[in-house]
Write a structure and sequence with these properties.
Blueprint lengths: L1 E5 L2 H19 L7 E5 L6 H12 L8 E5 L1 E3 L10 H8 L11 E2 L8 H14 L5 E4 L21 E4 L2 H7 L13 E4 L2 H5 L4 E5 L5 H9 L17 E6 L8 H18 L2 H6 L1
Parallel strand pairs: 1-10, 2-3, 2-6, 3-5, 6-9, 9-10
Antiparallel strand pairs: 4-8, 7-8
Helix pairs in contact: 1-2
The chain binds 2-amino-2-deoxy-6-O-phosphono-alpha-D-glucopyranose.
The site of 2-amino-2-deoxy-6-O-phosphono-alpha-D-glucopyranose has 13 residues, from loops.
GO molecular function: glucosamine-6-phosphate deaminase activity; identical protein binding; isomerase activity
Organism: Lobosporangium transversale
Protein name: Glucosamine-6-phosphate isomerase
Length: 275
């Protein structure tokens, strides 16, 4: 697993967006060989999306042959509700890029049969050959997508009850009123994420420092579901300095030294100096 540490949120956002750009360019997607990208919501990826939009506007990145799968969606929130993940994705990314709407996949939290909706989502991911790169964020309790503490680390897409901590954390989007926050969601499973050929997790802010420490300095644990990244063959966490506050100095120095060598080998000097 790689841990890439950048100064702050903006530097993390630029680094991840640039990484996505390079991966897509390298893959060279076509109509018959689309690039399948997994996407999160929340405040963590907003800066990444802004940069991706800039790359698109500068003519450096097209989404015509990209298929996306979002991680999760609230149950029972109207699709056009300002806080639905459908609305979030259109307002923060899709409306500014050239992705064909039929290439966008977001779970339908209003489906009549929610279990069937989840099963079909898994089948659709498999039908397009699996996810090439899954981007993710985490909650302060180390949950990935809506895989709350105690979720099976081999879970698949399913209906999930939200933890109280998540409801409280997300109340900021619902007039700070926890009664307005849906208490159920549809979410890809930890297993669904780990099946992606590559996973990249964004972790920023001191409030996520404990989760980062649990994720990388301790063993894989269902109480910190993002820790499943430890068994992924191509896992990367990109975090800011604030998120490293609970890590041992030795851990930080170790990963920084590895990245230094990595950047030298890849000749990534240009990327580093732009950040
Ligand atoms: N289901 C989402 C997660 O996918 C997201 O990672 C988390 C963190 O959000 P933020 O990035 O705003 O901290 O919020 C929600 O719980």
């Amino acid at each position: 697993m790689r841990l890439v540490i950048r100064k702050d949120y903006d530097a993390v956002s630029y680094h991840v967006a640039k990484y996505v750009l390079e991966r897509i360019k390298e893959f060279a997607p076509t109509e018959s060989k689309p690039f399948v990208l997994g996407l999160p919501t929340g405040s963590s990826p907003i800066g990444v999306y802004r940069n991706l939009v800039k790359f698109h506007q500068a003519g450096e990145l097209s989404f015509r042959h990209i298929i996306t799968f979002n991680m999760d969606e609230y149950v029972g929130l109207p699709r056009d509700h300002p806080e639905s993940y459908h609305t979030f994705m259109w307002n923060n990314l899709f409306r500014y890029i050239d992705i064909p709407p039929e290439n966008v996949n977001i779970l339908d939290g209003n489906a009549v049969d929610l279990d069937l909706e989840c099963q079909l989502y898994e089948e659709k991911i498999a039908a397009v050959g699996g996810i090439e790169l899954f981007l993710g964020g985490i909650g302060p309790d180390g949950h990935i997508a809506f895989n709350e503490p105690g979720s099976s680390l081999s879970s698949r897409t399913r209906v999930k009850t939200l933890a109280y901590e998540t409801i409280v954390a997300n109340a900021r989007f619902f007039d700070n009123d926890i009664t307005k926050v849906p208490n159920l969601a549809l979410t890809v499973g930890v297993g669904t994420i780990i099946d992606a050929r590559e996973v990249c997790i964004i972790i920023t802010g001191a409030h996520k420092a404990l989760a980062l420490a649990k994720c990388i300095e301790e063993g894989m644990n269902h109480m910190w579901t993002v820790s499943a990244i430890q068994v992924h063959p191509r896992g990367m966490i990109v975090c800011d300095e604030d998120a490293t506050l609970e890590l041992h100095v030795k851990t930080v120095n170790y990963f920084k030294s590895i990245e230094k060598v990595h950047e030298q080998l890849l000749g990534a000097h240009n990327i580093a100096t732009q950040e």
